[in-house]
Input
Amino acid sequence: MRRLLLTSSQVSLFLSCVITFTLLLFLSGLFLQRRTITSLRASLAPRLPPIPSSHYVSPAPAPLPRYAPASYASHLSSSQYAAQQRAIDWSRLAHVQIPTTHHAVCSAVMLFADLHRLKSPAKRVLVFPAEWIRDGDGVSKGSAGTGGMEKLRAGVSDPWLATTRRLLRVAGRRYGVQLRPVGAQERKKGWWGGETGVRDEGRELEARKLGTVLGMGELDKALLVRTPGWVLDASGLDAALAYGEVERVAAVVGSNGTDAVLVKMDEGAGEVLRKGAAVGSKEVGTLDGDMYGAPVVESKELDMFAAMGMRINELVGSEDVNLTASIGSLHDATAEEVFNATKYLTSASYITFTDRKLPAGPEYDVPFADKVRARPANKDADWVWTKLYGNFAERRREVCGLDLEWYPPA
Output
């Protein structure tokens, strides 16, 4: 069999082709890798909210370079816009929820889950009574007898406690929520000189909710919204948090009370409010908005702000940012009226479930007959109403692992 002999020029040509092909393959792989990493970073990066026109500072007019293209001016404007967006320190801004009952924890976690899904750049903070995470020894401390039966009785005294702890773990691990337990502020003397602990730290936290938020010195501003609700666009909430003008407290007041509260931190004012709440009555009354878990600003706190020379402003939505809407407004549309469902779902960033026809809230499985009577008269508004309630129930099962609660028939 004859052998094929290659000349030196053929060998060098073959090696050059192999090296060139390998180099091109490496460069194409490197280009695709960098392009993939860039797209992944863009998809995983937080979505910065648009800057309102009242806060945007356009670049100063300057002579363009001689051979600059026609798009150079728009390039400078977009660069200035992006620089102003990145100038916001989002580590000093936070969405805060303060559930004081086990019933309100799921709605708060659902809010944070939506903000996480929509890539909100702001921090997420959940403030709750510290007694929810104490073990059996901490709960039964100070009681007569600390035997095994007493520990067992303390562990099963609250049937909602296990669910609440599970939801707190889900919020911290899955949605990046900062968990912040708050204990009793002080203990009062009993008849015989012994200290008597606060029996319900949730009720005490409800009394000094606003003071607790004001005392968060590591933050600049915090936004509290009424829960339960449905987040349509997180950028609107983030824009209100970053660019909202507030001296101490600004509130969005709806037809059913306070829908949102924007707070600018002031540790001194927070300490005054916390002390004032502690000096008040031992039994803290239930507020009207507690059934919704709303960040209600109590009248006692309003009086303290007035005494300190402060006032609560009204945070209104501008043409750039519409903050909240109520699902109860769907009942205002008559049967003959033309209702624009798309406009309703895009005109606000957050929808609160404050429904005068279903005051129990979306967490309850209302009997079908009662739900039919509560439906809006307008068919398009009824479609939006039914869709929002159905989406809330499905999202509640997905995030919290909880079905709708039983509601007694009327």
Q: What stands out?
A: Residues 90-188+197-406 form a domain with the Spore Coat Polysaccharide Biosynthesis Protein SpsA; Chain A fold (CATH 3.90.550). Confidence is low (pLDDT under 50) at residues 139-154, 186-198, 277-312, 316-321. The chain has one domain: 90-188+197-406. The longest helix spans residues 8-44.
